[in-house]
Amino acid sequence: MYYKFSGFTQKLTGAAPTAAYSPQGLKQGLPVESPTMIFTTPTKMVSEAGSTVEYLGANKVPDLQKFFQTSDGVPVHLKRGYPDRLLYRTTMALTVGGVVYCLVALYIAAQPNKK
């Protein structure tokens, strides 16, 4: 059995296969036309660009892999030096501060109101 959403009852109702595969709002038989171009500069179609791939810079992945895979005793998340240490310490401070804040809020909420 096929179902279709009824705009009148706002429920699913039984429907014929042709009605179930023709959702409301879509019209059949309209010609397919490409939309007008709104860009100010001409663009290349994929077929016009050819099979060459243009890169914006050199591939740094092999160098970074060598850098991060060296075993020098430094954890991977601290390999890049000062910026990584700053980010790590800030994250840890915010985490510890958030835990302390939650515990203080829980302690205050558990206290009976004294008036």
Descriptive overview:
- Its main location: mitochondrion.
- By secondary structure, the chain is mainly alpha-helical.
- Helix content is 40%, strand content 7%.
- It has 4 helices and 2 strands.
- Strands 1-2 form a two-stranded antiparallel sheet.
- A hairpin with a 6-residue loop joins strand 1 (2-5) and strand 2 (12-15).
- The N and C termini lie far apart (67 Å).
Summary tags:
about 120 residues; mainly alpha; two-stranded antiparallel sheet; 2 strands; about 40% helix
Mean pLDDT: 80
The gyration radius over C-alpha positions equals 31 Å
Give the DSSP E fraction (strand runs of 2 or more residues): 5-15%
Please give the largest β-sheet.
2 strands, antiparallel
Quick rundown:
The protein is built from four helices and two strands. The chain is mainly alpha-helical. Strands 1-2 form a two-stranded antiparallel sheet.
